[in-house]
Amino acid sequence: MTKQGAPSPVKKSKQKVLIVEDEQLLNDAYKIVLQKEGYTALSAFDGQEALEIAENEKPNLILLDLRMPVMSGLEFLENFNVTERKHQPKILVFSNMDIQGDIDKAYALGATKYILKAWASPKELIRIVHDLLK
Q1: Cα separation of 132 and 112, whole Å?
Q2: Is the dihedral of CA 49, 50, 53, 56 positive or negative?
Q3: Sequence-ordered list of residues with C-beta below 8 angstroms from that of 98, at least 6 positions apart, any chain
Q4: How far apart are CA 131 and CA 122, in angstroms?
Q5: pTM (2 decimals)?
Q6: Model confidence over 94-108: pLDDT tens digits?
Q7: What is the CB neighbour count within 10 angstroms for residue 38?
């Protein structure tokens, strides 16, 4: 029971973010930053693994690198968007590749936003994630 006039506490449900990054240190760093902000952070290290996790876990947002072994980020987008899905997460392409053709293709395949890793501090990354998941 709450005091009269005080808002009752509301339990905030955790939103899931799938981190698709092949570099272990970066993947771990993003996971720590996102978990500190209250997100459930899931990890994949290539596009193929990301497809399986996204299908099973249905994340709210996918943080996607483009250059990875086994299946690249662009190949992931091609495969992920092949069929209609009831659950469409936001897709934040977070890459060091500043190639206009890749940027255009990522957007054409369903990316919500494209930012360069080198230009985004952890604080900036969290602000973007918050904005996308509003």
Answers
A1: 8
A2: negative
A3: 116
A4: 14
A5: 0.84
A6: 988 778 899 999 999
A7: 10
pLDDT in tens, 7-47: 433 334 589 999 999 999 999 999 999 999 999 999 999 99
Which residues on adjacent β-strands are paired with residue 17?
41, 61
Contact 70, 47 (CB under 8 A): yes
Q: In angstroms, rounded to a whole number, what is the distance separating the alpha carbons of residues 130 and 114?
A: 15
At residue 54, the 3 state secondary structure works out as helix
Fold of 16-132: Rossmann fold (3.40.50)
Query: How big is the chain by its Cα radius of gyration, in Å?
Result: 16
User: Any residues with CB less than 8 A from the CB of 91 and at least 6 apart, and which?
Assistant: 61, 62, 64, 77, 110, 111, 112, 113
